[in-house]
Amino acid sequence: MLNGNDVDAPCSPRQVVLCRRNVATLHPCLRDFASALAAKQPCFSLSSKDVHILHEPAHFYSRLLEAIRRARRRIFLSSLYIGSEERELLDALGSALRENPGLHVYLLLDYNRSTRPGPSSPVLALLPLLRSYEKRVHVSLFRSPILSRLAASVVPPRFKEGWGTWHAKVYGSDDEVIVSGANLNRSYFTDRKDRYLHFTSQPILTDYCFSFLRLISGFSYQLALSDTASAEPVITWPDPSINPWKIQPLVERSLSKFQTCHLTSSAYSHASESSSNDVLLFPMIQGGQFNVREEERTMSLLFHHLAPQISSSVVPAPLMNLTSGYFGLYRPYQDLILKSSVDCDILVASPQANGFYGSHGLSGLIPEGYTLLEQRFMRAVRAAGRDASCEGGSSGTVRLSEWVREGWTYHAKGIWFSPSQSSPPVLTLFGSTNLNSRSANLDTELSFVMLTSSEALQKSLQAEVNGLWQCAVQWRGAERHVRWRTRTIVGMVGGML
User: Fold this and answer.
1) Is 207 assigned a catalytic role?
2) Active-site residue, selected from the candidate residues 160, 169, 305, 411
């Protein structure tokens, strides 16, 4: 088990050299940004032939099962939770363990979401796997330390998640990894739209993701079996010398050391030096509760370096596409967009496509709460003189659309940047972040910025954008009534949305 001092995961100085060398192949408007980011964040140099953009939940699920079946050494799954009814997925893990005696399975899930009381509690579904392969199945449950011990004793179980969750969605086996925003539940495999990027033949990237998850596992509870015949799981804290309610400074130092290690240290002897590499990939950890704000720093850096390009009358007007299934844009990101002159097309979930639509109790008010946040955002857009509907679609405007598809919900999130209105994206931000205040301050996120000079991959990114915006309709939020009850609740807990 890792602890706060055990973060000496392998790193690759050759990757830094490759990243700097490959900057020159990028679009001119991104070269300065890429150089500046490579000095601050770990960087992986890849070939676009190993990057696969998936478009449908069913494709994601089939790729996930295939990766599990191919695994020989390790499988690691990081998610908010695993659905209690995911028998096929759990059986696939069991089959892989049975057929490969040297295989280990690592699960990192959110503590509060995965231990909801009742017969459908996710941890109960994991017990058969743990009983059959106790020495080779490792289940870690991360609990945000924002909620104090006293508050945790009185807050109802489901509401505890409001104070922050483990939110990274990373699914790896051996030397391949899928980065997504999707959880491991039936709707995410069938009728809940998200993003999914599959990286194959990438031992260095996969080792990075695995090491990050194992680091966090050292600050997480462990699922174990009872010494008695009890059917109830045993959840233990791994290190009695560390107070689980006061891990913030330890996690902050450990994550800082981890990222610095991957930025500057040496180890790998097999880092590729192929001249065919045409993709740069930068991981970003965002954990506001630990004062780790790499996503914020990256967003600020991006707009800082784009500003001279955007303001120049010589170059074509660029385009930024942005989407979030839970759109309550983090205020610093809103300011960056509104103070820039980049055209920005934003896609949000319609109320009916919000995952909480039709829920009972207070959670049923969540879609209405997001309508309120959208209304506030559009007021800020108009105040800044950036509303596309008022400016006739001129350069530097902001357009808001909503995603609608009968019987589906919307969970996609991310950013795409195109140098001009008619060119495909050359940059994308993807991963678990919803780009809202909750992601910035409460949840623990792992996201990535990817830049590419590959025309084929750029076309794939454009196809991804087209597929999402295919279900876009004009935003109707201004016409929707938001009740005072919802306004009051959002005023109290808005940062948790």
Assistant:
1) no
2) 169
Sheet with 221-224, edge to edge strand ranges: 51-54, 196-199, 176-180, 170-173, 74-78, 104-110, 137-142, 221-224, 234-236
Q: Given the residues 174, 191, 239, 387, select the one marked as catalytic.
A: 174
- Of 160, 167, 193, 411, the catalytic one is 167
169 is catalytic: yes
Query: Does the pLDDT of residue 1 top 70, yes or no?
Result: no
Q: Say if pTM beats, i.e. exceeds, 0.85.
A: yes
Virtual torsion, Cα 334, 339, 340, 341, nearest 10 deg: 110
CA 391 to CA 380: how far, in whole Å? 15
Q: How far apart are CA 60 and CA 180, in angstroms?
A: 9
Which tokens go with 38? 């490579």
- Please list, residue by residue across 463-476, b when 16 or more beta carbons sit within 10 angstroms of its beta carbon and e when fewer do: ebbeebeebbeebe
Q: Is 193 a catalytic residue?
A: no
Assigned token pair, 41: 């964040």
Q: Determine the Cα–Cα distance for residues 137 and 405; give it in Å rounded to an integer.
A: 38
Distance between alpha carbon 247 and the CA centroid of its chain, in Å? 22
Structure confidence by residue, pLDDT tens digits, 168-182: 999 999 999 999 999
DSSP per-residue codes, 392-416: TT-TT-EEEEEE--TT-EE--EEEE
